[in-house]
Design a protein that fits this description.
Layout lengths: L22 E6 L2 E6 L20 E6 L4 E6 L6 E5 L4 E3 L26 E3 L3 E3 L4 H4 L11 E5 L4 E3 L2 E3 L7 E3 L4 E3 L11 E3 L13 E2 L7 E3 L11 E3 L4 E4 L45 H11 L3 H7 L12 H8 L3 H7 L35 E3 L5 E3 L10
Parallel strand pairs: 6-8, 10-16
Antiparallel strand pairs: 1-2, 2-3, 3-18, 4-17, 5-6, 5-9, 7-8, 9-10, 11-12, 13-14, 15-16, 19-20
Length: 391
């Protein structure tokens, strides 16, 4: 597994204004351990207002992944894996800003660079381009590993064998279908439909050749990398603190899936990782009934809006559920019998030992010092930030 990661020591890097990229991978006991600084090994082109900043990341993934009894939803926001260059992989939807594209498809909304990455909390991928991560890979040949999901299962490029003997190589295709334009609430804009043919993948965007070698493939269309976890995710990355910068940069046991096939009628997966949605975790049957009664809605309509219908693997997003039901998010949370969490409070001063308006100023990051991001992607600072050109 560790051999799949790139040697970036001689790579051109993001550019002269940025730190050199760093990634190292080792197998330690039953874990694959990846340490990186989050800097791409190729030229960085800024496509969002957020700067590229160095990080101290450590990812610990299962070295011998096994398939779970049922698919597990990936988190709505945050990391789901790590690429072979040490860059974190996010799910296929964007965050809650800008307002007109809340939780939309960032690929469809054209806010990605040519390697399908961009900066927010950090530089990350929402989709993956084989040529950006593998020099020797060729179209029509089985694709190499481009990364690993947090369940330890490898993510290959788009090309793969149709069987264990590799009698034929195909470009794999997603089985998710677009049902409306995914400007906003992208998980509600796509539906998984099981399809015949060796090129089509399951709902998690993976497959097995029948020899126990389950793996994911990247695809041109949603969900691009993962639609869910086929295995059991680990605790994911251990986030290190960002490293200060002098100058601000310019703009082993794998089995086959259980009987029933990829589209089997399964109950909802485990609660998503990456923290609960506003007001709590994945809704239960009692909450579905409570919402239906409070809002005078059909229970099946509510279950679909809350993404908990039988077999559902879409991550919970109560803000999107409220929009689907035509109610305020707070009213939805109240009807579920939950308490809406208070708004996050930002720090008004830098942590001890860090200068006023530290380098993090300007990040769309809950840890940012004295700064916030408006719905139209403009950075606002709560105090002068002249040293970092913020505001």
């Amino acid at each position: 597994m560790a051999d799949a990661f790139l040697d970036v020591s001689e790579a051109p890097g993001a550019g002269p204004a940025y730190p050199r990229p760093r990634v190292e991978a080792t197998c330690e006991g039953d874990e694959l351990v990846v340490r990186s600084n989050g800097i791409p090994h190729y030229e960085f082109v800024q496509v969002t207002p957020n700067p590229l900043l160095e990080r101290n990341n450590e990812f610990r993934l299962p070295a011998s992944p096994a398939l779970a009894d049922k698919p597990v939803p990936i988190p709505l926001l945050g990391g789901i894996g790590v690429a072979v260059n040490g860059i974190v992989i996010f799910g296929p939807n964007e965050g809650p800003v800008p307002a007109e594209e809340q939780f939309g498809d960032p690929v469809f909304n054209a806010i990605m660079d040519t390697c399908m990455g961009h900066t927010a909390l950090e530089y990350h991928y929402h989709a993956m381009v084989q040529r950006c991560l593998s020099v020797g890979a060729k179209d029509g040949k089985p694709s190499p590993v481009l990364g690993f999901a947090y369940d330890g299962i490898p993510i290959h490029g788009p090309w793969g064998c149709v069987d264990a003997d590799c009698s034929k190589v195909v470009r794999h295709r997603s089985s998710w279908e677009e049902v409306r334009e995914p400007h906003q609430d992208a998980w509600d804009a796509y539906e998984y439909v099981e399809k015949d043919g060796p090129e089509y993948l399951d709902e998690c965007n993976g497959h097995s050749h029948g020899d126990g070698d389950y793996h994911y493939h990247v695809t041109e269309t949603w969900p691009y990398i993962l639609g869910c976890y086929a295995g059991t995710p680990s605790g994911g990355p251990i986030r290190g603190r960002r490293r200060p910068q002098v100058s601000q940069a310019p703009p082993g046991q794998r089995g086959q899936r259980p009987p029933g096939g990829p589209a089997g009628n399964r109950p909802p997966g485990a609660a998503r990782r990456g923290g609960p949605p506003p007001g709590g975790g994945r809704p239960g049957p009692d909450e579905v009934q409570a919402v239906a009664a409070a809002l005078n809605k059909d229970a099946s309509e509510v279950a679909k809006a809350l993404r908990v219908e039988p077999g559902g693997i879409k991550p919970t997003n109560l803000a999107a559920s409220a929009r689907t039901l035509g109610v305020d998010t707070g009213k939805l949370i109240e009807s579920m019998g939950r308490t809406q969490p208070p708004p996050r409070q930002r720090q008004n001063q830098a942590p001890p030992g860090e200068p006023e308006c530290f380098f993090r100023c300007g990040q769309s990051d809950e840890d940012a010092v004295g700064c916030t991001l408006t719905p139209d992607h403009k950075v606002l600072c709560f105090r002068p930030c002249d040293d970092n050109k913020c505001g």
